[in-house]
Write a structure and sequence with these properties.
The protein starts with 6 loop residues before the first helix and ends in a 22-residue tail after the last helix. Helix content is 40%, strand content 18%. It has two domains: 332 residues, Aminopeptidase, CATH 3.40.630; 111 residues, Alpha-Beta Plaits, CATH 3.30.70.360. The chain is α/β, with parallel strands linked by helices.
């Protein structure tokens, strides 16, 4: 099920000499290890939410500028989005970097649940602090290889904010910022090492706001019209709708505003919905049906309803040409071994899991290449429909860890998280270098993309023409 190759095998696969290999990847990786480990932990401490990641974005941009990259900030009308580029001609390889945290998950790096006051109340439960740091690390390694070998090519780091519900990359795609890119590489923290040909659900979300009339709930209830009744009526109808939708679908919601006092009929209430399905066409159809429930709820409760589309993502589109190269390189570097201290930590946090699917020790291996589907969503999906895109996952968390959990936050602030970060940086940089040395890969990858999307495909964002919701995480 699992394979391992040594570094020499990777050298032979690249067709590079051991000397070139060492200078272009291994030495650069080691030279910048402390730099980007410190960057990852600093972003972990900032724990800034979507579109609020000012410190995290500036830190990454500053580090890349010091390494000779040209920085363009405030792209796509997003203050925390930026592009860092090195090189002036030749193929363009883009590397994606995220850095937003999730609300309500402030946690220390203790193997026990330990909520901390970090100033934001958020935590890096999806490991985006590692994501941004490793991708920037890889970009620097590739830049140094281009520079030392006189290669014609450009490496471009995309600082992409607000992946968690903000669709930062969608606005960047819509703005045409990927139009001249040949290949895009990315990665994501996980509890396994894999480079699957991976698809995902597309997604569209909205906040539905109901407006009513306030009154004394006991003294004059007949004069009130409850906005909360509108929200609850909508939720009931959506829950009945679940019986009559494709089984691959996912619909979930949270009431974000429901009133302030039981004895006051609430005149304002809000519910936040996500609608998911593997096909974008079906997401649109299901979303429109959810809108109809909101309209019916408003009629039935004599309230008024408005809604705002918050984000929308395409499904991930695989590209086996470059995905198989990423898998080969990940396998060549191998998995992750824990020190005695890390094993003690891992065993302690492992006891907090509920029916974990993986065992400690599995992080030492790389999964076989396969095709898989994730029921989650990512704005990387939009990128993958316009540029050949491939990614990996590395074990930055203790095996068995669920994403978006306090355990993910905790491990991401330790050496366990940093080991997975280094593995990602190595794999991305090795893959980019291999593509630069064999331009035919780019043509093959583009041909595969064209065959998958079809001749009639024209990109159109699911979120429409709305502007970036820069305050969507601000209460």
């Amino acid at each position: 099920m699992f394979k391992k190759f040594n570094f020499l095998t990777l050298v032979l696969l690249f067709g590079l000499s051991e000397e070139v290999y060492s200078s272009s990847i291994d030495r650069s990786i080691n030279n910048h290890k402390k730099q980007f480990s410190d960057v990852a932990l600093e972003i972990w401490n900032h724990a800034e939410m979507g579109y609020q990641e000012t410190k995290s974005s500036n830190l990454l941009a500053s580090e890349l500028k010091k390494e000779g990259f040209k920085i363009t900030k405030n792209v796509a009308d997003i203050p925390t989005a930026f592009i860092a580029e090195y090189g002036s001609s030749g193929p363009v390889i883009g590397i994606l970097g995220e850095f937003d945290a999730l609300p309500g998950l402030a946690q220390s790096n203790s193997p026990f649940k330990e909520v901390v006051d970090n100033g934001t109340g958020a935590g890096h439960a999806c490991g985006h602090h590692l994501f941004g740091a490793a991708s920037a690390w890889a970009a620097v390694v590739v830049k140094e290889w281009i520079e030392s070998n006189g290669i014609k090519g450009r490496v471009r780091f995309y600082g992409t904010p607000a992946e968690e519900g903000g669709s930062g990359k969608v606005y960047m795609v819509r703005e045409g910022l990927f139009d001249d890119v040949d290949i895009v590489l990315h990665w994501h923290p996980d509890d396994v090492n894999s480079a699957n040909s991976r698809t995902s659900n597309s997604n569209k979300s909205a906040k539905f706001t109901f407006s009513g009339i306030s009154s004394h709930a006991a003294g004059a209830p007949e004069q009130g019209r409850s906005a909360l009744d509108g929200v609850e009526s909508m939720n009931i109808m959506v829950n009945m709708l679940r019986e009559h939708i494709p089984q691959e679908s996912r619909i979930h919601y949270v009431i974000t505003k429901g009133g302030l006092a039981p004895n006051v009929v609430p005149d304002l209430a809000e519910v936040y919905y996500y609608v998911r399905h593997p096909e974008m066409r079906m997401v649109e159809e299901l979303f429109n049906r959810v809108v109809k429930t909101a309209e019916g709820a408003a009629i039935g409760t004599d309230t008024k309803m408005t809604y705002e589309v918050m984000h929308g993502n395409y499904s991930l589109l695989p590209n086996d040409v470059i995905q198989k190269i990423m898998h080969k390189n990940l396998t060549s570097f191998g998995g992750i071994k824990y020190s005695d201290k890390e094993n003690i930590y891992a065993k302690t946090i492992y006891k907090t899991f509920l029916e974990p699917s993986m065992e400690i020790g599995s992080q030492e291996f790389v999964s076989d290449y396969t095709t898989s589907h994730s029921y989650g969503s990512t704005d990387v999906g939009d990128v993958s429909w316009v540029v050949p895109t491939a990614g990996i996952r590395t074990a930055t968390w203790v095996p068995g860890t669920a994403a978006h959990s306090w355990q993910a936050v905790a491990a991401g602030g330790t050496s366990i998280g940093l080991k997975g970060t280094e593995l990602a940086a190595k794999t991305i940089s090795a893959t980019a270098i291999e593509i630069f040395t064999n331009p035919e890969i780019i043509q093959q990858a583009k041909q595969e993309l064209e065959s998958r999307v079809g001749e009639s495909f024209q990109y159109k964002a699911l979120l429409g023409d709305r502007k970036p919701p820069l305050n969507y995480r601000v209460n």
